[in-house]
From TrEMBL:
Keywords: Magnesium, Metal-binding, Molybdenum, Molybdenum cofactor biosynthesis, Transferase. The lineage of its organism: Bacteria, Bacillati, Actinomycetota, Actinomycetes, Kitasatosporales. One of its GO terms (biological process) is Mo-molybdopterin cofactor biosynthetic process. The keyword Transferase applies. This is Molybdopterin molybdenumtransferase. Pathway: Cofactor biosynthesis; molybdopterin biosynthesis. Residues 195-334 form the MoaB/Mog domain. Belongs to the MoeA family. It comes from Streptomyces hoynatensis. One of its GO terms (molecular function) is molybdopterin molybdotransferase activity.
Length: 426
């Protein structure tokens, strides 16, 4: 039997990040950047106001107060987007809006609240709309130092500096920055395309009435959603019956759109274990028994001319889900260019919250399903409560769980209060 670590190491040795692709920004959302992006031009590109107010010369407002305001002649408005700017001379001010370029001659901006807004009354609380007739004078109630309320050119990012390093995951702020520096596209490691294919002659599609002996195909939905959640572009193929030729033909078809293939079922030792029958070492797939429960039988290999990674997961729903989490998810993330330290689910230590001891088979690492309760602030560790038993068919309990409780190979019984490692499914 192979250990979980040995199998995972073999999987991660076999997969590679996909070739970089230049994508429109929103298509690159969530992807890993495959280039260093430098700032092409200063950000912001020009000195601009951070307040709605008046662009002034500092000498003109020196010593200004509400009692002894500085009275300035208003020479015009500067709105955001203005290309032609008035020059502010001595004794003059220009109304200026947030984001508007600072006009030549002005050294500071005084917010409208520090003035009478040009209306001749007390302190204004807002700027009069452009359409409102107002006096050609403004009384400024406070002094301003040079540069006050001005966001200078390049103060966010200087031209030539590194905006984003290769390997950065493009979340919303990073996409915002790319757009801000004028990039319409980014070169990223694309999302892997994963094809999910259930096998089993007992399977009926959800929505279909079950004939005797049939069950609904739940794995392909669960695994397709899991692949999507792991960052893949996931396709669910129609389930195939237990017939090796049909499966081989289906795989052949699917390879055209797959960077990775996931099958479920047919990997055990039964007489109709079709995946095992259809794929052999010659096809590139090796079948193994792992020292874990659930998820003991596993197939993995690189198939076809494109050497596409194929995961042949066991058919029991919990087995296929746990196998996905432990092996497929890290592989998908590695193919998407994520760094080695970020491929896995977070692991925490938690105390077992259970009424009775929990048993585990000797020599197999058990992954029980559980619900995790984080510790109170300052306290540690949190606790984890098993949901359902150890049966690999228990999908109803799996649907309650948010964590996998790891019981090591050499532990056959975990007592309430024992500290165990827990994978947070997030
Ligand atoms: N004699 C032995 N029998 C079994 C062994 C063993 O070592 N010796 N291992 C058991 C373990 S552990 C597992 S896990 C399963 C793996 O079996 P397969 O991968 O061959 O899967 P199937 O036989 O096709 O199905 C198993 C189980 O899961 C249900 N299933 C399958 N596909 C789906 C699907 N898409 N959606 C929902 N449920 C599905 C299927 O009906 C079976 O009940 O083998 C054990 N047997
Ligand atoms: O290993 Mo199977 O995956 O226990 O149910």
């Amino acid at each position: 039997m192979w250990s979980v670590e040995e199998h995972l190491a073999d999987v991660l040795r076999a997969v590679r990040p996909l070739a970089p692709l230049e994508l429109p920004l929103l298509d690159a959302s969530g992807c890993v950047l495959a280039e260093d992006v430098t700032v092409p031009a200063p950000l912001p590109p020009f000195d601009n106001s951070s307040m709605d107010g008046y662009a002034v010369r500092t000498a003109d407002v020196e010593g200004a107060s509400e009692e002894f305001p500085a009275t300035l002649t208003v020479i015009g408005d500067v709105a955001a987007g203005a290309g032609v700017l008035p020059t502010v001379g001595p004794g003059q001010a220009a109304r200026i809006m947030t984001g508007a370029p600072v006009p030549p001659g002005a050294q500071a901006v005084v917010p409208v609240e520090w003035t009478d807004g040009g209306l001749g009354g007390g302190p204004a609380d807002a700027m009069a709309p452009a359409s409102t007739p107002h006096g050609a004078e403004v009384r400024v109630h406070r002094p301003a130092t040079a540069g006050a309320h001005i966001r200078s050119r390049g103060s966010d990012a200087a031209a030539g500096t590194l905006a984003l390093r290769e390997g950065t995951v493009l979340g919303p702020p990073q996409l915002g920055l790319l757009a801000a520096v004028g990039r319409a596209t980014a070169t990223v490691t694309p999302r892997p395309r994963a094809v999910v294919l259930s096998t089993g002659s007992e399977l009926a599609a959800p929505g279909q009435r079950l004939a005797p002996g049939q069950i609904h195909d739940s794995n392909s939905y669960m695994l397709t959603a899991a692949a999507q959640a792991a960052g893949a572009v996931a396709y669910r193929a129609t389930a195939v019956a237990d017939d090796a030729a049909t499966l081989r033909a289906a795989l052949e078809d699917q390879l055209a759109r797959a960077d990775l293939v996931i099958t479920s079922g047919g990997v055990s030792v039964g007489a109709y274990d079709v995946v095992k029958e259809a794929l052999d070492l010659e096809s590139g797939v090796e079948f193994r028994r792992l020292a874990m429960q659930p998820g003991k039988p596993q197939g993995f290999g690189l198939i076809g001319g494109g050497r596409v990674p194929l995961f042949a997961l066991p058919g029991n729903p919990v087995s296929s889900f746990v196998s996905f989490e432990l092996f497929v998810r890290p592989a998908l993330r590695a193919m998407a260019g994520h760094a080695p330290g970020t491929l896995h689910r977070p692991r925490v230590t938690a105390r077992l919250a259970a009424e009775a001891p929990v048993r585990s088979p000797a020599g197999r690492r058990q992954f029980l399903r559980g619900t995790y309760l984080p510790p109170a602030p300052g306290a540690a560790p949190g606790s984890v409560r098993p949901v359902g038993g150890s049966g690999s068919h228990l999908i109803a309990a799996l649907a309650q769980a948010d964590a996998l409780i790891e019981i090591p190979e050499n532990v056959t019984e975990a007592a309430p209060g024992d500290e165990l490692t827990v994978l947070l499914l997030g």
